[in-house]
Please model this.
Amino acid sequence: MMAGFGHGTRRHPRSRGRTWSRTGPDRATLGIIGLVCAVAGFFTLGIVLGPAAIVCGWLAMGRSWTGSRPIPALVAVVLGAIDTLLAIIWLAGTASPGNGLF
Model:
C-alpha cells in the first residue's frame, strides 16, 4: 500500500529547463518579436522600435553573447542597433540650428 511513499522525486526529478515560471514569452517568440520590431523600425518610429528590438533580441539570446545564439535574436539586436543609430542621426539632423527656421 505504501509503495512509492517519499520516493517520488528520486525517480522523476524536476528537469533543468523547467525550474522557472513559464508566464512570459519564450526565447523563440522574443526573437521573432525583436525581428519584427527591427524591420518595422526602418519605416516608422525607429527611436522606439530600435531599442525594443535590441531588448527583445538580447532577452532571446539569454542575456549572453556566449553559447549558441538563435539567428532571429542576433539579427534583431543588430538591426535594432542600426535603427536606433539612424534615428539618433536623423533627430540630430533635424534639431540642428538653422534647419528651416529662417
Observations:
- The two ends are 93 Å apart (CA to CA).
- The mean pLDDT is 79.
